[in-house]
Specification:
284 residues; alpha/beta; four-stranded mixed β-sheet; four-stranded antiparallel β-sheet; elongated
Amino acid sequence: MKKKTKFSDKEYGFLLTGLLNELAKTTKLKPDREDWDIEGSWHDCGDIHFVDSRYMAEFALWRDFGCKTVKLINYGRAAAKMSFYSKHKYWLKKPHDLTDEERDDYITDHLNTLSLSVVLLQAKLDQQPPLMQSETRSRIDMTLKEIDAWQLIQTRSHEYELAVSTYQRGYAYLYVSYKFVLPNGDYDNISEHLLHHTRDRIGNITQHKQNIIFVNMAEINRVHPQQNKEIEFYLGRFPQKSTSGAVRLYARPRPESESQAAFGLHNPDDDPAQLDLFDAKDNQ
């Protein structure tokens, strides 16, 4: 059942206060890896409260409450076995997914970001000691070179393919995969992402998030998630990569452009044989 997420401020406040009060008075379980078959680490997210499923009915009022700061991970499906794992969160747009306008917009936005970075670095130079000035000038020089590279790609866009992705940002959600008992006695598996604390740019928590996991105390076993490297392999085939920002740009010459360049077809001046051909035509 889809959870309700739209409430008036009064409704939301009433439900949140009630949920927090119920959570505060509920006895929490302390997981023990020797007593529980539980796998992975659950420390890189929001707070997690393990609750005996015999108290699950006490939370019935909030089963469909789409709260932004407290999440009932598995109401009605008490976990019989659990595994915590990280899942890389990213999106990828390949060349055929982008219109010409979108290609130009992505490159323009990146160039603007790089130009602003240069301005900010230059503004710091006068207030820095000599050693730091040298490092800053080096960063400015590298950024200017990247600007030149992306301006060339933008100018000669017909010769390049562009992919855009958040893959290199390396942001990962923590998930819990758990097994639960169906009414007929069979088992089923499901995964849920866990709420993460909201942090500022330097890592300080600005908003606490809480997760409630109901546990079937009779039986706990294990699952083993797997990962693949397909996206990393695909993006590794793009030689020109942007070096900053949440969204990264990847460019490579089009295959037909490389073939034409190898035969000097872009510019007859690069190929004496073609020059002879053109001269011969002119003399006819």
